[in-house]
Structure prediction request, 361 residues.
Amino acid sequence: MAGDGVEIETTKFEAPHPPVTSETDGENSAEMQSSSLPLSELHLELEGGTPPPAPKLGFQVYAIVIGLGITNLLAALENTVVAIAAPVILSDLQLGDSFIWITNAFFLSSTAFQPLFGQFCNIFGRRYVMFTVVATFMLGSGICGGASTGGMLIAGRAVQCVGSGGIVMVSSIILSDLVPLRQRGKFSAILMSIFGIGSALGPFVGGAIVSSTTWRWVFYLNLPIGGAAFVLLFVFLRVNYNKEMSFWQKLKRIDLVGNSILVASTVSVLYALSYAGTRYLWQSWHTLVPLLVGFLGLFIFAWLQTTSFSAEPLIPPRFFRTRTSAILAINTFLYSALLYWCIFFLPVFFQGVKLYSPRRA
Prediction:
């Protein structure tokens, strides 16, 4: 399939039909618009008829999926692997109460830059954006592994997660290009399962590494494995690049104002929540000012996305106009809130309070 100037070249697989562009009412509209099936076949599937046989996917597609799976596994591991190593890193680099930013910098960068990479894919194509995010992830891993100060480690984590968030975002876009709608759920489940397994294994891998060698291998481990995935994608992820638009024309399509406001507002809110009740009192201006400024910025960002000022909104409001999309967004927020505080804080509690070893914690 092709999307905004991007066409995946495969030797054994080609999308059988162009995307459906007709407009319909209800929640089936979004599904039809993103489908790789013709409208008649899509209606047949939706109405419970007998769908036509699925197109065969060649070796090249499976090789790309393997490459995407490896990169997603590494990104998932880095979400949680540092949690178990945090007390050792804290002691080695003398981080003090700044240790929270080992995790905050990671998830902040991921959250803030994921929508931007989605725009980059639509403007500059999938291939080089994917290479960029994988290389960025490996660069951040190298910086973290060689960190000699807490500030260097936090900066490396921020760089690492720019790549990690991009990997998750771009992988899903590439998968949607490669696989017809009828088979997309199966392949999406594969990537999501890999990501879930990586997140679950992170604390165990971190504990094993810290118990047997230096914590730096928590980050160095990404370099050889990520390099292998990079080579695999470089060989098999082939695309046609549309050069009809100039670089500056493409750059104008990026919502730079929206991205800047979103990043600044998120940093402001997260800073206030990180130090409220520990370094500063909740009623202190050090807490209230960045918190209020951050929420005001998020409100302005949401308003700008609905105006003509954003030619191509970073987060289009239409994503939240259906009940299904809104519920999915809320559930994702609740799931993340319940999961990640356990993953990060429980290992610190077991090692710092219960005095368990990293492996046992």
Observations:
- The longest helix spans residues 59-93.
